[in-house]
Design goal:
homodimer; alpha/beta; Quinone Oxidoreductase, Chain A, domain 1; Rossmann fold; 6-stranded parallel β-sheet; globular; 2-alkenal reductase [NAD(P)H] activity (chains A, B); OLC1v1008243C1 (chains A, B); MDR_fam (chains A, B); oxidoreductase (chains A, B); ADH-like_C (chains A, B)
């Protein structure tokens, strides 16, 4: 039995060279030179994916630094110059020889930045229960790693209690915007920081933060935090690190919790900002904890059960910044390190 | 009904002035000018204590800095120039109008650095179950706050598992020497650092540490830790802070735990040592937690039940450095900041 199988061009985003400093558009190449047969090879139990949405995540820069400099080695595999970069994405199954997936399924999980990807071992992929009121792109964000990060990093690490004071840095970002809304659900008071007045407006007037400020307009972050938290911070959801974390530490309350989701200000600089206030971990008996979303994959079903009703009832909002066309991916990705994105940065692979 | 009540001279250690930098002998005054009536006043439900042993604890320096500079405000009350300093001690009840204590009882808890102390509200005092094989001085250390610190800070914070690698700084000190022994009981591999060859010898040959080093002889602490922990550290019991903590961070293993018991290297300097390696909290998904022994008072009975059999069977050893005479207290206390003590520093109030 034979059948005609389509062979198509496959556009990719390739890493041009190991990066040094912040990722730039010129660190990537858009290639359209290869073709792919839309069929899983005989003898494989893989899947062939048509990629629809790709997630721009800050940690990806670590995988572009070469084999020696990957600080996340052990968790993720680094990228190689000349080969496609990868990350979390939403895809349609075009062909499958895997018993867990069939043609026409939609999945989210690890994929490559290209139009079609053959995945030989689809182990870190979740099947999407498609719902007409839920955009598929949400599975790169609120219903994917970003949402799970906000959920695990806030509820599991911070153990929030009603009335507690919460600070979220990079608060309009993929994870921060959810942490603020989770904090409100938990009965907390929440203040966010962001890098533009438009983002501050979003936080205060759309996402329900009690207050927010534009950190670029503040001269003295310690004084700023004292203004918003005169009695101190119970929970810091840390996305920024560096000077932000250093200003947070002396403003923490006794037995405060610092959930270290990211330190984006420190990712692309040669010399880390020195921290001067670590002593407050002792004096205020703080818990500071780093984690990876990988740690929370086992609770993904529990998370989904929690979040879906809120999404369907529009009780939790999610702001996405979707750029169309794989060829526009490098600019969108590079932009997240300077805050060019407005909400979760997503790349829609195909044009409508 | 009346009785003759003894009136005695009462020697004190007074704070002479708020301190600046490390405590020095000249920051204290030995006073023998006052007398005390060895009787609890009518209408009080306090106790009159004869102090036997006083504990030299590193945190006391914070209470000598004046009302503005006490970093521990909220936990402890600062000392006042001209008044006695205080801390944890072992005392005999000389008179009591409190239903929980009677004349002749031995207690440990907060007292003042003087021969006799009237405590109007003996709320933070534990009655000692006197045992012929247990020195009373142990209740300033292994059976008091130091032991409870080691127990809570190691078991509650670090959740040690068999085979894990443990690093203890200031390892021959009041708390460190116990953490090392607890680590061995838990089946861990434990390396300690200390400030003299004699202390290193104690750790390796008396207290059962797997290895130990003299940090004063090491040029590059990062390289030192890599030598002793080629595959990384699971648990860091932090007593020193500053450069020690900064060297520990990049040497931690994934999901490592850092229990912050103290940062003695940072207590008496104007400018804190900057920390350059905090990013490893994120990349290695570390938990770093500060705490106070106060947090563990509720589990003191459980701790005592755990530790007493080991003490009686000599399966856990405890090294004390006991100086005799209240008048020698200031020198003994000041010495702990430069590591002059060999083991737990105790002041025996009265001469034999």
């Amino acid at each position: 039995m034979s059948r005609n199988v389509e062979i198509v061009k496959n556009k990719h985003v390739l890493l041009k060279n190991y990066i040094d400093g912040s990722p730039k558009v010129s660190d990537f190449i858009i290639s359209t030179e290869t073709t792919i047969k839309l069929e899983v090879p005989e003898g494989s139990n893989g899947v062939l994916l048509k990629n629809l949405y790709l997630s721009c995540d800050a940690y990806l820069c670590f995988l572009m630094r070469g084999p020696q400099s990957s600080s996340l080695s052990g968790s993720f595999r680094g990228f190689t110059p000349g080969a496609p970069i990868g990350g979390s994405g939403v895809s349609e199954v075009v062909d499958s020889k895997n018993p867990n997936f069939k043609k026409g399924d939609f999945v989210w999980g690890e994929t490559l930045w290209e139009e079609y990807t053959f995945v030989s071992q689809p182990r870190s992929h979740f099947k999407i229960d498609v719902h007409k009121d839920i955009p598929l792109s949400y599975y790169t964000g609120i219903l994917g790693k970003s949402g799970l990060s906000a959920y695990g990093g806030f509820y599991e690490i911070c153990n929030p209690k009603e009335g507690e004071k919460v600070f979220v840095s990079a608060a309009s970002g993929a994870v921060g915007q959810l942490v603020g809304q989770f904090a409100k659900l938990a009965g907390c008071y929440v203040v966010g920081s962001a890098g533009s007045d438009k983002k501050v407006d979003l936080l205060k007037n759309e996402l329900g933060f009690d207050d927010a400020f534009n950190y670029k307009e503040e001269q003295d972050l310690d004084a700023t935090l004292k203004r918003y938290f005169p009695n101190g911070i119970d929970i810091d959801f840390e996305n920024v690190g560096g000077k932000t974390l250093d200003a947070v530490l002396p403003n923490m309350k006794m037995h405060g919790r610092i959930s270290v989701c990211g330190m984006i200000s420190q990712y692309n600089i040669q010399k880390q900002d020195p921290l001067h206030n670590i002593k407050w971990v002792l004096f205020k008996r703080l818990k500071m904890e780093g984690w990876s979303v990988i740690d929370y994959f086992p609770i993904y079903p529990k998370f989904l059960e929690f979040i879906l009703p809120y999404v369907l009832e529009r009780k939790i909002k999610y702001v996405e910044d979707i750029v169309e066309g794989l060829e526009n991916g490098p600019a969108a990705f590079s932009g997240i390190y300077t805050g060019l994105n407005f909400g979760k940065q997503v790349v829609k692979v195909f044009h409508d």
